[in-house]
Amino acid sequence: MSLLLEQLIEAFQVLPGVGRKTAQRMAYHVLERGRDGGRRLAGVLAEAVERIGHCSQCRDFSETEVCALCAGAGRDRQQLCVVETPADRLAIETATGYRGLYFVLQGRLSPLDGIGPRELGLDLLARRLEGGEVAEMIVATSATVEGEATAHYLAQLARQHGVRPSRLAQGLPLGGELEYVDRGTLSHAFGSRAEMKD
Amino acid sequence: MSLLLEQLIEAFQVLPGVGRKTAQRMAYHVLERGRDGGRRLAGVLAEAVERIGHCSQCRDFSETEVCALCAGAGRDRQQLCVVETPADRLAIETATGYRGLYFVLQGRLSPLDGIGPRELGLDLLARRLEGGEVAEMIVATSATVEGEATAHYLAQLARQHGVRPSRLAQGLPLGGELEYVDRGTLSHAFGSRAEMKD
Zinc finger (C4-type) locations (chains A, B) (predicted)? Predict the structure, then answer.
């Protein structure tokens, strides 16, 4: 096999979930039917890797020092929603009518992997809370063990700065049949049942 | 979302089997944890798209006018194995002890998709057979309807030039339990049963 082709197949394996077989398929596909797309991908990728950094306020990916959302007018600066990833931020932005600001951790507390408060930019977050502008911090980390630990830590940080922490509701997913919901969720939802009002 | 990030997510979708969600994950992954790999991928991809062409003899991908396998000594030039894709060629090269040459169709006859003899380089193949060097043409197209049609066409082409066509054996896969083999394969294998010799 051509050396350059071999290098291309190896290079594709930097992508998540791409092993040798998939990388090979990608390389063949690009060379056989997608040279223009491949050329474009190479160009955009090279540019993105150099030029996309992190917003100095929310840590989301941004080409500019402050991202469009943080810089934009018309957002409620008293609410700060803390998410793990840019994808989570996008999901909330798409699904809800939230008009406040965000803070992107780019991960969650995981001491075993060497991810502590510093790696998540919590010093930056603390300075933000010190500013006094934020009234409510909505903790939207995932409902996993690590996400919960992170949420706990964040809530303490908020309280230290006189900011009210809140957490996304947990319970049955909408449209979820009781029979197929996992035990943990069902047990939690049962215990956290709320009174029905007229 | 940053415009450049949006462009990167779109660009990734040129890859086979990559939709918007996967493209997004790839972009985030590269930016968050794989900038060096991303830089390398961009470079190799740009180079590959420009420099990798087709071998003028076998149509496999090659950086040089004639690929290493076609140019190499020590291959039996009387045998020519016709495969659909470079991946098929690689599979045969890895699994068998075949020492002849190859011809890569880069597809199979599919009139509805506009893929005819010309798109598969069969004019080049015909000239090769005219040369008189090839004695046996091993047709290793896939065992699908289109692969069979292609095989039929290739066999005729071979006979026209006085070359003996052969086809890979079809039957039960090794280690395959009868119970789980599909009906078509089982029926074919039963009909093509061979006498057992001492």
Answer: 55-70
| pLDDT at residue A37 greater than cutoff 70 | yes
B54 touches chain A (CB under 8 A): no
User: Mean pLDDT across chain A, nearest whole number?
Assistant: 88
Q: Is residue A72 part of a domain?
A: yes
Q: Which residue has the tokens 């794989």?
A: B34
Say if B190 falls within a structural domain: no
Q: Tell me which residue range forms the domain holding A24.
A: 3-51
Q: Do B63 and A28 touch (CB under 8 A)?
A: no
CB A35 within 8 A of CB B49: yes
- pLDDT score for B47: 92
B positions 16-35 inside 8 Å of A (CB): 16-17, 22, 24-32, 34-35
ipTM over 0.90: no
Query: Residue B81: inside a domain, yes or no?
Result: yes
Q: Are residues B74 and B148 in the same domain?
A: yes
Q: For residue range A100-135, what is the model confidence (pLDDT) as tens digits?
A: 999 999 888 988 888 889 889 999 999 999 998 999
* B136, B99 Cβ separation under 8 angstroms: no
Subunit contact A40:B8, Cβ cutoff 8 A: no
